[in-house]
Design a protein that fits this description.
globular, about 240 residues, alpha+beta, Alpha-Beta Plaits, 2 domains, nine-stranded mixed β-sheet
Length: about 240
């Protein structure tokens, strides 16, 4: 029988979602907790991969069991009692046998938070930029993302994906109390894609790139043409739709 687990985590202390041979990952910690409570071997498949230091307000993973779980709320409570404070389980629920946490997802949404002043309690959750940023120009460039599907220029090289094509449904900057937040929604994302897009949009906001030059970077399909990736701590996976 297949189950899905919905959870959230602060990624500061983890080397990303995916299990690593010599580093602590969210997947390894959550898997160990499940195995301990269910008293059997469990393999978790996540909705996607988040890099080291990236957070998730809404993440899903599925696992299979030979027997059914009678008291799902109890399992949720037990998981939260033994998991560290930076991982929280919202619920565990049954799903169809053909459900796949990664491949059944129709879209994913990320937020990237930027502060434009020094805010001590935001250091682990936002990137700080001390120079002025033109949000109108950044939004004009962000809207151009919806006109393209090949985002090779914003992907890490030598990845194991078959295509660099993605469909972006929404991309917009909005003001916040301490700076601004970028929201982007797509059917899928490439490795490092959001951080590379934000880094390049920051160059537009600084006046170093025009909107036309931003489009030229996309069309070059060359990671070296795009801007630097922004720091991981500002990035949050905030929604996965099925």
């Amino acid at each position: 029988m297949r189950y899905c687990i919905k959870f959230a985590y602060k990624g500061t202390n983890y080397h990303g979602w995916q299990e690593q041979p010599n580093d602590v990952s969210v997947q390894s910690v959550l898997t160990e907790a499940l195995c301990r409570i269910l008293r059997c071997h469990v393999e978790l498949t996540g909705a996607g991969r988040t890099d080291a230091g990236v957070h998730a307000k809404c993440m899903f993973a599925h696992f299979d069991l030979e027997n059914s779980i009678e008291d799902l709320p109890l399992i949720t409570n037990k998981l939260n009692s033994i998991l560290p404070n930076d991982i929280a389980v919202d619920e565990v629920f049954p799903v169809a046998d053909d459900f796949h946490a990664r491949f059944s997802a129709k879209s994913r949404t990320y937020n990237y938070f930027v502060t434009t002043k020094k805010v001590p309690f935001m250091t682990e959750f936002a990137a700080r930029f001390t120079f002025p940023l033109n949000m109108d120009a950044m939004n004009e460039a962000a809207r151009k993302l919806l006109d393209y599907t090949d985002f090779t220029s914003f992907s890490k090289v030598h990845t194991d994906v078959k295509t660099n094509n993605c469909t972006i449904y929404h991309a917009q900057w909005e003001p916040t109390e301490y700076g601004m937040v970028f929201t982007i929604k797509a059917n899928r994302f490439l490795r490092n894609m959001v951080r590379a897009i934000v880094g390049t949009l920051i160059e537009v906001g600084k006046g170093k790139l025009t909107v036309d030059q931003f489009c030229d970077i996309i069309e070059k399909k060359d990671r070296c043409a795009a801007g630097m990736s922004v720091p991981a701590q500002g990035l949050f996976l905030v929604d996965v739709e099925y």
